[in-house]
Amino acid sequence: MGELIGNPTMAELTLGVDCSDAVTRAVVVNGSGQLLSREQLPPAPGNIADAIADTARKAIAGAGGKVSALAVADNVGGDLSRITADDMFEAARVGDGVCISVVRDTANYVGMAVAIGAARSVARPSA
Q: Is there a domain that residue 95 lies in?
């Protein structure tokens, strides 16, 4: 099936995969690619944009002063708490290596969520 690659320093990402029957189901994956149980979830994980911004903040804070990570920090006056998903995507567009890594990891997690949702639909089709 392939190898699951993740970054253990990345934040948890919450990805909605199914909103049928008025019940929202989600896949929550940590930076190591592990699915998290409900008990392992952070309090009020928020929406995907918040999770992406939080992942970027943590990646930049742990980047050890890499020049590429400073592009986002400079856009918000050095205050990492002000980083938004838009800041992170813009920095990735201009070549910020840390933000490119966050985008790549996020895309992997979205792919996992879609695959799990599709597998669930095949395994349990609607009546």
A: yes
* Cβ–Cβ < 8 Å for 110, 27: no
Q: How far apart are the first and last CA of the chain?
A: 30
5 within some domain: no
Exposure b/e, 27-43, CB count within 10 A at least 16 = b: bbbbbebeebeeeeeee
Q: List the chain residues with pLDDT less than 70.
A: 1-49, 63-72, 122-127
Q: Flag whether 19 is in a domain.
A: yes
Q: Which residue has the tokens 């804070």?
A: 61
Instruction: Determine the Cα–Cα distance for residues 115 and 56; give it in Å rounded to an integer.
Output: 24
Determine the Cα–Cα distance for residues 25 and 82; give it in Å rounded to an integer. 29
Extended beta strands in 1-127, E state? 13-18, 25-29
27 occurs within a structural domain: yes
Question: Can you give the pLDDT at residue 60?
Answer: 76
**Are 125 and 18 a contacting pair, CB within 8 Å?**
no
